[in-house]
Amino acid sequence: MRDRQALGRVLVVAVSIGVASALHYLTSPSLILWHELFQRLYYLPIIYAAIFFGWRGGLIASGFAALCYIPHIFMMWQHHMPEYAMNQYAEIIVFVLVGTVTGILADRRRRQRMELEATSQQLAKVNRDLQDSFEQIRRADRLSAIGQLSASLAHEIRNPLASIDGAANLLESPQTPEETRRGAFAVIHKEIRRLNRLLTNLLDFARPRQPEFQMVDPARLIDSIITLAGHSAEHKGITIRKDVSDSAPPFECDPEQMKQVILNLAINAVQAMASSGEIVVSARPGNASVVIAVRDQGSGIDEENIERIFNPFFTTKDAGTGLGLSVVHQIVTQHGGTVKVDRNSDRGMTFSVIVPLRHGRQN
Question: What's the whole-model pTM score?
């Protein structure tokens, strides 16, 4: 295919030079203006050859044009036009220069294009290698997550089962006092609730459902959170205060999922505070978004752990599963939002949930 194209281009150059020469020979020597015009026609095939065949093609084409043009110069000399004929010899030198210089520039451009193509192929190969590496990393991450899940489940399930087993042994013994029996029943109920919470968090993380979007008032959302988390907070002498800006707009979200997010952050805030204090749940407008923040007065998070708190199974709590904040991050991401963590200037942390006002619009 390439040989056929090259042959076709050679024929174009040869025919074009032949046509220009024929026009010279068929035109009266006295029509100098027309001869000068026909003379310029040689440059077209010379440049064409230089572009497609490089400096060698340009040089050969200019040489062929000179051979075809020299008889015309002799003819003009015989018609007593020596000055015109001498100028045409100089024109032949220009043919050679134009063909050679154009060919050199074309060769340089061709080399650059080949280098770019080679670089592009190398980049494509590197990209494929990177994609393969990312896929291997993803597979390794999945295997690692399975290992972490197994270890976490083994740890989290073994402890409640041990407590339930101990309580069951007490209930089996006829010598166990009634008060101890009631305590054993309480332990069993508590550990069952703990196991149920663990499985719920695990299912929420492993199989998140798609959000069902509807308009929600942030003030009402925060009121429901305070009602749900208020009981746990009161036991520790903690006050949960609402701080909603008048300009905080309604936004589109899944109410149950967003309630799960804010409630999770509020419960974490309560657990982070060892003594009495205040938790502020606020809402304010953002850039085409609403910002709901939970600010506590707890012990805070170590600097080296801030980047890891949303990782599955990472926890600093003795009885934590490490899935709560992962579920929070997953739900907010499904809503097209983000979660920010900031250290307060005095003490404690602030978790900010930034959600677009409308589903499908990024903030």
Answer: 0.48
